[in-house]
Amino acid sequence: MLHDDQDAREDHAVGGIAADRLRSIIERVERLEEERKALSGDIKDIFSEAKSAGFDVKVIRQIIRIRKQEPAEVEELETLLQIYKRALGM
Amino acid sequence: MLHDDQDAREDHAVGGIAADRLRSIIERVERLEEERKALSGDIKDIFSEAKSAGFDVKVIRQIIRIRKQEPAEVEELETLLQIYKRALGM
Amino acid sequence: MLHDDQDAREDHAVGGIAADRLRSIIERVERLEEERKALSGDIKDIFSEAKSAGFDVKVIRQIIRIRKQEPAEVEELETLLQIYKRALGM
Amino acid sequence: MLHDDQDAREDHAVGGIAADRLRSIIERVERLEEERKALSGDIKDIFSEAKSAGFDVKVIRQIIRIRKQEPAEVEELETLLQIYKRALGM
DNA sequence: CGTGCTACAGCATAGC
DNA sequence: GCTATGCTGTAGCACG
């Protein structure tokens, strides 16, 4: 029967190759997310250690943030330079 | 001299052990954040692959979310949702 | 000189009409963004009120989301979710 | 009966007062979200106008972003000053 | 039309 | 327990 054949093909697509593919995708993502979570845990541990050593965690976070932003700021300045050049028709 | 010793100790605290400790903390965190960012990139790549293979990424995300939750929790939210819907005549 | 004329015209463009136009654009956008931010604050306040009244904010958000979507769309995503779940034997 | 009374009160809570409260919350949020969306539309219109006038929208966005960040940067510098004072035991 | 990017909102967590 | 903050996910927008 056509209808059954369609179902069979669809089921196959779902239960066979594509399902394997889907499962693979999901499991790989879940694995990577676990690793990512583990790294977050490691980071958290370091901050705990820092706190125990008497550092101000909030301030350390800010330093890290600033260190990250600096390259961006360089780029921003560069862009602003371009803006002004453009405004001057250079 | 005591004063010099104090200065030495203070300088030491800033330029030596504590400063080194601080630097170590910051660099380790930065390193871990980089790794974490790399993992996020990997995850993104898998979703791109999934999309190319014809899967609906949003739905896959939803499945991963569900798999992460406790079944009881899912049930509870669902129940509450039904209650609210009823209250609104939906 | 042609070059001076160009400079003159360009300077005018920067210091005169175009610059004013640019300033106007920026200030109008900033004003609208402020208003938008204020509305976000109002929304947040309502959710705080809801929480205080014993409602589950997350569920309320979900209801609002559902009400925004086309019923057909909801159905479609749900169907796809079921297909994927079946494929995974969930 | 106490049990019935409880049920009555609970039912009332769902179908009566609380339901009204819930509906009110939802409708107010939806209204505010609409207004917010309208503002986003207005902003978009201004950018369209800017583009038509020959401005580079991306650059304008960046200028707005920078104008927003500047106060934050002042605060960051202040915080850094505190950090260094702290590092020096002042 | 699709794809990548930016920016915004929601969620979770950690600190007070 | 609530508030504040940072991270993640989603959605809208610009570009090819």
Automatic annotation (TrEMBL), chains A, B, C, D:
<dbReference type="Pfam" id="PF10073">
    <property type="entry name" value="GapR_DNA-bd"/>
</dbReference>
<keyword id="KW-0175">Coiled coil</keyword>
<comment type="similarity">
    <text>Belongs to the UPF0335 family.</text>
</comment>
<dbReference type="GO" id="GO:0003677">
    <property type="term" value="F:DNA binding"/>
</dbReference>
<feature type="coiled-coil region">
    <location>
        <begin position="22"/>
        <end position="49"/>
    </location>
</feature>
<feature type="domain" description="GapR-like DNA-binding">
    <location>
        <begin position="18"/>
        <end position="89"/>
    </location>
</feature>
<dbReference type="InterPro" id="IPR018753">
    <property type="entry name" value="GapR-like"/>
</dbReference>
<protein>
    <recommendedName>
        <fullName>UPF0335 protein AOE01nite_30310</fullName>
    </recommendedName>
</protein>
<dbReference type="InterPro" id="IPR046367">
    <property type="entry name" value="GapR-like_DNA-bd"/>
</dbReference>
